[in-house]
Design a protein that fits this description.
By secondary structure, this protein is an alpha+beta fold. One zinc ion is lined by residues 20, 24, 118, 125, 127, 129, 131.
Length: 588
């Protein structure tokens, strides 16, 4: 079969050139308005560009209009970007003379004796390029924000000021992007997390550590129940391992050598331990706890495993980048002849679950990184197994050279949310090294010992991150099955409270997640507040409902369902709140 490269090319070269060119033009404008500004770096990014500046004053968005006006002039002049090659010596002299200390430091680290510069107008930058032919190539741009950024991303270095911007080939595309940004701001999971009272992060408890409030904890529990059920339906077994394991075990697995910068360590009674950054080791010990036969395989161990990884404080971001998180992690141990079917089973699982949340996604294969363990032959066989399934099943994918885990190649799943943004969630990693290091074996049909293959995989990834993505994907308005509060009872007057209490009781007994708002407030206000809380159903109870023994449900989108009998509403909500079942894999 034919290999299908993904439909969308990862980086559109002309867009990269355009955005990087815009960063030069912005840097020129900044230097003109703010004498003494030192330049550091100014790359293009997935959504635009930025430039880092060292400046004694403080930039603010109030500076953007004049900077943008000047940028527009430079663009209208259509000045050519001129590439120049000079010796390192000459380049050092040039940037020293201009007082560009960061450029000098960058130059000193370059081993090549030939340096390329790009010039336009009076502006010159140390740059590998490429660029648009001239400044006129930058069609539509906008400056977006200012943020602090450490020189070289290292918090021991000086904090610089980063100005972000974006650029597009047409004004229409720029406008669409800006509208998406506005919507993303409105849906920011940190803001909604606070407004909907889902979670908080406290500096005094520690950065990157999530504290779930009742509604957030409920949301997570619902997701976890969904996960347990779906795994059991697919022949996984639920296991639970400890939070800390002896350091020697992490040395044996290779984690200590390859991953220690991200690990937390502790010592108890002269014994060194590490907090697990991954769940693999306990699962291997379960496998090893008895002799396995070829008939026992595959074994699929599933754990909602909480792990700790020391991410730098600069990269932490709400629920999306944290230091403690729980993965929907599984390890599959199988015979080499079962590997393809197991990989296929995981890919089908991913598809079924993504369908439940209405996510589309793309697949990427990551190959051997520089820092890795295992033999060339093993890497080749593992990489081939992953690719084979993608090719046989006619699935589109891209290849990321050198981006694999240190113990094996992987398939990454990038889902796309309601705003068209991509997020990395599921991964499937093929590992031939760990079974070797832990001397895992099974007795084959030939009566001999054989080595199993191990697959590491997650479907949603980190629960924290996935919940963050879900909050933004749904804008906080979760589908009924996920909503931590499914209905709220709103009384019109205090006379209706006893009837309301009866309804509340009945709904609780039926397993509906219900709240009551019996405050002596105007009904309009109560409805508005419930809508802000994005509660799917508001059940209005006044004298009329009380007399006729009915309730008047409203949906959060404003749809008024009119008065109906309680039993009728109950049937309706029970039907709508069913947890969707991800379709089971097709047997081949
Ligand atoms: Zn450049
Ligand atoms: Zn693992």
């Amino acid at each position: 079969m034919v290999r299908h490269p993904a439909a969308k090319k990862k980086e559109d070269d002309s867009l990269v050139k355009l955005r990087h060119s815009a960063s030069h033009v912005m840097a020129q404008a900044v230097q003109e308005f703010f004498p003494g500004v030192k330049l550091s770096i100014g790359p293009s990014t997935d959504d635009g560009f930025y430039y880092d500046f060292d400046y004694e004053g403080t930039f603010s968005p109030d500076d953007f209009p004049k900077l943008e006006a000047r940028m527009k002039e430079i663009i209208d002049q259509d000045l050519p970007f001129i590439r120049e090659e000079i010796s390192k010596e000459e380049a050092l002299n040039l940037f020293k003379k201009r007082g560009e200390l960061y450029k000098v430091e960058l130059l000193q680290a370059i081993e090549d004796e030939h340096i390329t510069l790009y010039r336009h107008d009076d502006f010159v930058d140390l740059c590998r390029g490429p660029h648009a032919p001239s400044t006129g190539g930058i069609k539509a741009f906008k400056l977006l924000s200012v943020a602090g950024a450490y020189w070289r991303g290292d918090e021991h270095n000086k904090m610089l000021q980063r100005i972000y911007g974006t650029a597009f080939p047409t004004q229409k595309e720029l406008d669409a992007y800006l509208a998406m940004l506005e919507e993303a701001k409105r849906r920011d999971h940190r803001r909604l997390g606070q407004e909907l009272d889902l979670f908080s992060i406290h500096e005094e408890a520690g950065a990157g550590l999530i504290i779930y409030h009742p509604k957030g904890a409920l949301l997570r529990s619902i997701l976890e129940d969904f996960e347990r059920r779906e795994h059991l339906r697919r022949g996984y077994q639920i296991v639970i391992g400890p939070q800390i394991l002896k350091l020697d075990l992490w040395k044996q697995s290779g984690h200590f050598d390859n991953y220690k910068d991200y690990m937390y360590f502790t010592q108890v009674e002269d014994q060194e331990y590490a907090l697990k950054p991954m769940n693999c080791l306990a699962h291997m010990l379960i496998y090893k706890s008895r002799q396995r036969s070829y008939r026992d395989l595959p074994l699929r161990y599933f754990e909602l495993g909480t792990v700790h990884r020391h991410e730098r404080s600069g990269v932490l971001h709400g629920l999306l980048r944290v230091r403690e998180f729980t993965q929907d992690d599984a390890h599959i141990l199988c015979r080499p002849d079962q590997l393809h079917d197991e990989i296929r089973g995981i890919l089908t699982f991913v598809k079924d679950v993504m369908d439940v949340f209405d996510f589309s996604y793309e697949l990427e294969v990551s190959t051997r990184p520089e820092k890795s363990i295992g033999s060339d032959a093993d890497w080749e066989m593992a990489t081939k197994a992953l690719m084979d399934v993608l090719i046989q099943d006619d699935l589109a994918y891209e290849v990321n050279e050198g981006e694999g885990a240190f113990y094996g190649p992987k398939i990454d799943v990038k889902l796309q949310d309601a705003l068209g943004r991509q997020w990395q969630c599921a991964t499937i990693q093929c590992d031939l090294t760990m079974p070797e290091r832990f001397d895992l074996s099974y007795i084959g049909s030939d009566g001999e010992k054989h080595r199993p293959v191990m697959l590491h995989r997650v479907i949603l990834g980190a629960m924290e991150r996935f919940i963050g993505i879900l909050i933004e994907h749904y804008g906080g308005a979760f589908p009924l099955w996920l909503a931590p509060v499914q209905a709220v009872i709103l009384t019109v007057t205090d006379r209706n409270i006893p009837y309301g209490e009866g309804i509340y009781q009945r709904l609780c007994e039926e397993g509906i997640r219900v709240e009551q708002d019996f405050r002596n407030e105007k009904l309009g206000l109560k409805i508005r507040e419930a809508q802000l809380q994005k509660i799917p159903y508001m059940l209005v109870i006044g004298d009329k409902e009380q007399e006729t023994k009915t309730i008047a449900p409203r949906r959060r989108d404003g749809t008024d369902l009119q008065g109906m009998e309680f039993e009728k509403f109950l049937a309706l909500i029970h039907n709508e709140r069913k947890i969707p079942e991800a379709s089971l894999p097709q047997r081949r």
